[in-house]
Amino acid sequence: MPLKILPAFLLLLPLGEIAGFVLVGRALGLWPTLALVMLSFIFGMALLKRQGIGILRRMSAEGRTGAMPGRELLRPAMLVIASLLLIVPGFITDILAILIFIPAVRDLAWKYISRRFVVVGQPKGFSGSSQRSDRGSPDIKVVDLDEEDYRRTSDGKSPWSGKNLGE
């Protein structure tokens, strides 16, 4: 969602939810409307407890390895989102949550989300299986500096400017 739309969305969603309360309350009455809100809250809490935070841990673990989270993680992640939407009081968020339960909607979400995943590779020399030299230390160049080595000179320049560190 573009950042410019966010303030309008944050203002219009509560207004839409209030209008939804009025319309449903007028059609069903006060107590059935409150019962629907409470039922959606309870169902959302139960669903969130059932899905748990395990899905978020799995997604984080796959992200750390550099693998793109696949479709098998999308379904539980979307159910976590749906459960959070059910917890929020209101009928618009409940309708959005119910839409997420439909497999075709989840497939559309996957098509939209999968194009926006960016997997960033690890830089050379910092892989989990780094090769070791004969001395047992990683085969990477390390520059060990003392305090006087990294202080700037009186003219404000780095003492290393103009020097070739690759030698």
Notes on the structure:
- The protein is elongated, with a radius of gyration of 27 Å.
- The longest helix is centred in the first third of the chain and has 23 residues, at 6-28.
- Helix content is 60%, strand content 0%.
- The chain has seven helices and no strands.
- It starts with 5 loop residues before the first helix and ends in a 17-residue tail after the last helix.
- Mean pLDDT is 76; it is low at 121-134.
- By secondary structure, the protein is mainly α.
- It has a domain at 12-114.
- α2 runs antiparallel to α4, α3 (54-65) packs across α4 (71-87) and α4 packs antiparallel against α5 (91-100).
Considering the chains and any ligands shown, give keywords for the structure:
167 residues; 7 helices
Helix/strand layout:
Elements (H helix, E strand, L loop, with lengths): L5 H23 L1 H22 L2 H12 L5 H17 L3 H10 L2 H12 L32 H4 L17
